C-alpha cells in the first residue's frame, strides 16, 4: 500500500513538472531571446540531478525512474524539438529596437503550426496606433529572407482608438524555396522614423503544393542596340528568367501577375547582367483575362495613375514584356489589351 502511494506521488510530481514545463514553453514561445529554452533546460537538469541523488542515496528506484522519465520526455519535447522545428532564426522576432509588440497585436489567421498556402487570409486585432488611414502592412519571407509577397491589412472597424481593432487582408505569394519562413507585421509609420516602426513576426510553415516552371520576360538594353550602339527599343532586348508558380487552374493569370511584380523578382546576379524592368507600376493591376477559342487572349487592366503611357520606346517595351510572357503558353496566339488606351504612347 505504501509502495503504491509512493508511485502515485511520483506520478503526480512528474505531471506537475510536465505542466510547469509546458506552461513555460507556451508563455515564452516566440520571445526574441531563447530565455525560455534556457529556463526549461535548467529546470529539467535540476530535476534530473535531484532524481539521481535520490537514486544514489535513498535507492527509491521506481519513483525516481518515473519522475526521471517524465523529466527527460518533457525536456526533449519542449526544449529540444521546438528548436529543431523552428531554428533560432525562425523563432518570432521583434524589431531592432527590441520592443515587445506582442501586447499590441493578436493574430487569428494564419493559426499557429498550420501550413500556409497562397492566397493567405490574414486576420487579427491590433491597437489603433498600428494603423494609419485604417491600414498597415504585412510581408511574407522564406527562410532565406527572400520576400515572397506583401499585403495591405485593413481595419474592419473605426481605427481611431487606443483599443484593439479587427483587421483583415489577403496575401498572395510566390512559391517559396524553403519549407519555413516568417510573416512580418509592420505598423503604419507615416513619420518614416525607425524608432516609431513596430514589427511583429511569427514563424510559418509552407504547405507542399505542386509547382510549374514559367518564363518571365524582362529587358536587357545591352542586347538591344544597333551598329552605332543606339537602343532600338525592340523585342530583341527581351530576356527570359525562369521562375516557379503554384500549379493552378489559372497559370496565365498567375504568371502575368508575377511579371507585374517586376524588380521584386530579380536576383542580384540578374541585375548585374543588365536585366531590368520598369515594373512594378503604381496602380497597375490585372483585373481579368479571357482566352478565346481562336487563341486570342484579352487582358483587362486597371491603371489608376496612368503609368502605362509615355514615350513610344518605353511603352513598347512594357507591352512586349507582357505579350512575350503570355505567348509562352501554347494556346495563346494573340494578345489584346483593355482598355484600348492602355500601353499607348
Give an account of the 3D structure:
The protein is α+β, with helices and mostly antiparallel strands and 345 residues long. The protein has 3 domains: 2-85; 105-205, Sandwich (Immunoglobulin-like); 211-338, no CATH class. The chain has 6 helices and 12 strands. The longest helix has 27 residues, at 2-28.
Please state the overall shape, judged from the principal axes of the Cα atoms: elongated
Can you list the strand order of the major beta sheet? 1-2-5-4-3-6-7
Distance between the termini: 95 Å
The structural domain count equals 3
Helix content: 25-40%
Taken in chain order, the helices and strands follow as HHHEEEEEEEEEHHEEHE
Query: How many strands?
Result: 12
Whole-number mean pLDDT: 82
Radius of gyration computed on alpha carbons: 28 Å
Task: Give descriptors for this structure.
345 residues, alpha+beta, three-stranded mixed beta sheet, Immunoglobulin-like, 12 strands
